[in-house]
Design a protein that fits this description.
elongated
């Protein structure tokens, strides 16, 4: 499991010419999704004005990764803006970088950072989003996750639910929107069968609004919390710090080897 990482980098780890930070997210985002994610990257850029920070919406293919970096890069850290490392990180982006490394003129200084979750800072934002729904002691909470064919990514979602349950002081059930079981609507129905009459509240283990969030909102719960990022709100500082920590994990390791 990827554990929580501490905030802040020691002063001696600041480079005169730091590696570029490329935030990468996959798919064809809606306007709301794109705006929400851009707010996170804007927050990262504001927190570290010394860094060259950019964002690329790619399909996690070799050509897309290479295009995101550009031919004149002198090294970069790719931070995947995903909560769990399924296919797009462990296969798509990794293979894309491996392929780029064998291309003529490609630079070997590019590194791939870890996925964002599981991390206690994400759990804090999830708890805040759920808090907006005024949870009562009798509410049943289901964590809605996108789902993956990668069992490691599925385990990471269950780990996040465990941490969220500890944070809230109650049991949290996991429901997947696609690719894994239990499916979200099945998890909601199961709770209603076992605990008839309770309010079922969904926490959104989703980075931003979009197709998955729309599917979660129509799964039959009584209430659903907003995703971690919103197009009309500044990105939570905890998530900005998390992205920078993932960057520092790679950039700092390069300094230690230097």
């Amino acid at each position: 499991m990827v554990g929580s990482r501490g905030a802040g980098a020691p002063a001696e780890h600041v480079e005169a010419h730091p590696l570029r930070l490329v935030a990468v997210t996959h798919g064809a985002p809606s306007s709301a999704n794109r705006e929400a994610v851009i707010r996170l990257v804007d927050g990262v850029a504001s927190a570290r004005p010394d860094l060259d920070v950019s964002i690329s919406f790619v399909d996690a293919s070799r050509s897309d990764v290479a295009a995101a970096l550009g031919p004149d890069d002198d090294g970069a850290v790719i931070v995947p803006l995903v909560l769990s490392a399924g296919f797009h990180v462990r296969t798509g982006l990794s293979l894309g970088l491996d392929g780029r490394g064998s291309d003529a003129g490609a630079l070997a200084g590019t590194r791939l950072a870890a996925e964002l979750g599981p991390d206690d800072r994400i759990v804090e934002v999830l708890a805040e989003r759920l808090g907006r729904l005024r949870l009562s002691d009798t509410d049943a909470v289901v964590l809605a996750a996108a789902g993956s064919n990668d069992p490691r990514a599925v385990r990471e979602c269950f780990e996040t639910a465990r941490r969220l349950g500890h944070r809230l002081g109650r049991s949290v059930t996991v429901g997947f929107i696609a690719a894994a079981i239990p499916r979200l609507h099945d998890a909601i129905e199961m709770i209603r069968e076992v605990h008839p009459g309770v309010r079922v509240v969904v926490g959104s283990y989703l980075l931003a609004p979009g197709t998955f969030y729309d599917a979660a909102a129509s799964a039959g719960a009584d209430a659903i919390a907003s995703p971690l990022l919103l197009p009309d709100e500044a990105a939570p500082g905890l998530l900005v710090d998390l992205v920078l920590d993932r960057y520092r994990d790679i950039a700092g390791a390069r300094l230690e080897r230097a």
